[in-house]
Amino acid sequence: MQEKWGKSKKWTVMPSVLLVAAMAVTGCGGGNNDKGSNASPSVSASSSESAAPSESAAPQESESAAPAEKVKLEFWAQKFEDTTDAWFKKWTTEFNKANDNVEVKLTIVPGDAWAQKLKAAQAAGKAPDIMTMNYGNIANAAKLGQIQALNDLMDPAVFDDLYDNVRDFVTVGDKIYAYPKLVEPSAVLYYRKDLFQEAGLDPEKPPTTWAEVLEYGKELTKKGVFGFTTAQNAADLGWSSWGLQYNASGHLAVTDDWSSADVNNGAYENVLNFYQQAYQSGIMPKQQLAGYADIKPFGEGKVAMAVCGSWAIGQLRNSYKDILDKVGVAPMASIDGDQTKPTATLGGWTLVVDGKSQHAKEAASYISYLLAGDTGIMIDFFKGAQFSKFSARKSVDEAMKSDVDASKDAWRALIAEKVIPYSKAEPIYPWDISFALSTAIESAMKGTSVDKALAKAEKDINDFIAKSKLAGTNPKQ
To answer: Are 150 and 364 in contact (CB under 8 A)?
Structure first.
């Protein structure tokens, strides 16, 4: 997984830790892109339609005039895969080479030190001008004035280049507070085509409904091989089940104004019933073979179908090269077979401008260059990630159709076209709410009645809302 999600408090930490752990497993390989490597950076770069102007296009100082004082910007990026760090360093260096009046100093901060270091810097009035931020933190940061709106700092065209669902992730009210770098869907179905054939199933027709997942799982469960695996403990279920909650109900566990739980209903009964039946039918292992974010049991042939995030592509391509021709990739099945309904949420990362930066325009120009300008720069990043991460920009996806490596990657195309457009944002309410619901799912899997499990989840969520005075505090309302 990519850079996932150094968040505040319980909710904001848990998925982040899981994703960073998964990144250590996947360790994506590097790659270069001819177009990206020739991009000509400029502080004025902001258009997604064309490469940035050349350095020679910058205004020239007269011989008698004193040189303008260079604006120095601090940019903090969380520590992720080595390929991501190298990409940040490469393109920051290119930007600095082409700009005489602006210099960006890049600092890579380890994930376990991020929150403390940033808090201390903010308290001392020394926060970085530019920083990485996950989607889940944007609304609260905007509400607190910790980040600046970008609408007046960047060319409006760069926001039109974003996919509508992702643009909403970075919008609070009528202002846009971050520019997306990437998205990663939380749920994709991976299946073994060879095991499908052995079971008499069509390897080109993966299950499209939850009922088919259960049916296929029974056919695929053989001695030493389980038919299906997904999350099965509350910590993993808390975030990996969001897509299926949306799929069955069209919403998440609380009302939009965060005033009460919204789980004790038929839609959520369907969610718990699916997990309960999958676990109790014997198609899943009784003890989880690995965390949800780790595709290892599938790679080792211990399971025939596995639900995991898009980051599993990198792990499979690095660690299980001998089975790649036997692997099928599909959207996770929908409750009723309608695959235009969400089955995944999108996590990922953005760049933001600090709320107190004295050089917001220059900071935004760097963001425009790195994330919103020449499509080749972003293709260079996605190649390094082995196309296990995905673009939030229409123009980048269009450019990939002409890129030799990207255009022939069928897995990338499938996820980009059939999963991401229908995926939803992760919730921004506290993790305690997600954990209360996931505890109910795990409880139902282990034998508690669905009705009883949901009743307890409803009570626990409502108690938390009351204790935390959460009602009416949704920053996007």
So the answer is: yes
